[in-house]
Write a structure and sequence with these properties.
This protein is an alpha/beta fold. It contains 14 helices and 12 strands. The strands form 2 sheets. Strands 3-2-1-4-5-6 form a 6-stranded parallel β-sheet. Helix 11 links the parallel strand 10 and strand 11.
Length: about 350
């Protein structure tokens, strides 16, 4: 096929967007002369621009549970692009109708990589992809499931997984990250922490992070770099207050842009993070990463990458497809069951590999 235009809608959370971007290298292999345009929510459009292989990003602003005239308007706007293929990574009703209004001839849904099936929406797709070879999405990382499903569609027999990857960092971002690390001696291991999520009920306690930080400094001659957005500052201060070696920490909370954070992760030896978007940012940056899971299942949500680890107590009620979530469940045993020794063991395993 000659030059074609491919539309991808990824109206998803940050981590899911990064994981599902694993379809891009498969598409570029199948359609080497293609132009790929990505639709993302307005607040995450900037993130999508870092996906290697994306030619253009369209930001989408919408109101939940309303505004269907806006969907029609977006469909008419997209019609001007004359797309050949439209792919929904998470085909909710809005993006389903949008592609229909855009008159995209081939419309593909990939919801089964997420473990669910379409209702009435399936009638608006020409291809509702499924794992015809018996692939069990619950036994694979989400990024692997998305890539495998796309390979089935394109008849790609390749079996080696290609992790999602961000575009190379700019010189200015590399210099900004290097400036943050300037106080670090060259013989020290550099370990970045992300210690808080948007859902604090599933976060790991500050005192446990303090123990891990001191242990890393003593055992591996490390410098610990605290990362995060400004609202994480209170927890980081609490962690530092409990530490014996706080002088071996760099507090970078609120000091990096998104692109500078990618560049920073490319200059550290390891990222220790909670189950949040930062986990997948580190993976796509190519950095070794260990994720602490409480509610979600590591089998699905562990980031892609060569050196990735996960820590979870694997309680019977944890995992996306069983756990009702911290807002409805008043227990906290899934958080308490993740011990310091479990995290130390996984760090040691990854440290021996890198």
């Amino acid at each position: 096929m000659s030059h074609i235009k491919i539309f991808i809608d990824g109206i998803m959370h940050l981590g899911d967007m990064i994981m599902s971007s694993s379809v891009i290298p498969v598409l570029k292999k199948a359609y080497p002369d293609s132009e790929i345009i990505y639709l993302a929510t307005a607040n995450l459009a900037y993130v999508a621009s870092f996906f290697d292989g994306i030619d253009q990003v369209i930001p989408y602003t919408y109101q939940s549970k309303g505004g269907y005239m806006d969907v029609y308007r977006m469909g008419k706007m997209l019609r001007k692009y004359n797309f050949d293929i439209g792919i929904s990574l998470d085909p909710r009703e809005r993006v389903t109708l949008m592609k229909w209004f855009a008159h995209i001839p081939v419309r593909i849904s990939m919801e089964q990589a997420l473990g669910w099936k379409l209702g009435w929406e399936k009638w608006f797709y020409t291809n509702d992809l499924s794992f015809s070879d018996g692939w069990n999405y619950q036994e694979h990382r989400m990024s692997e499931s998305f890539q495998h499903l796309m390979r089935l569609y394109t008849n790609d027999s390749e079996i080696e997984f290609i992790p999602p990857v961000f575009c190379p960092s700019t010189d200015s971002d590399i210099k900004a990250a290097a400036q943050l690390l300037k106080p670090v001696s060259t013989n020290k291991r550099k370990v970045a922490f992300c210690v808080e999520t948007t859902d604090r009920a599933k976060d790991w306690p500050a005192d446990k992070f303090s123990i891990i930080a001191d242990w890393l400094i003593e055992k591996y001659n490390s410098i610990v770099i605290m990362t995060g957005v400004p609202k994480h500052a209170d927890k980081v201060r609490e962690i530092l207050a409990h530490m014996s070696h706080k002088d071996s920490c760099i507090n970078a909370v609120g000091k990096t842009s998104f692109s500078e954070l990618i560049a920073l992760f490319r200059q550290v030896d390891l990222v220790l993070t909670l189950d949040t978007g930062t986990s997948h940012i580190a993976g796509a940056a190519g950095c070794p990463v260990i994720t602490i899971f409480t509610h979600n299942t590591p089998a699905i949500y562990t980031p892609a990458g060569k050196y990735t680890g996960a820590v979870s107590a694997h309680l019977p009620c944890s995992g996306k497809h069983i756990c009702i979530g911290p807002r409805k469940c008043k227990k906290n045993d899934c958080v308490e069951a993740v011990t310091v020794s479990m995290v130390q063991k996984e760090i040691s395993r990854i440290m021996e590999m890198i």
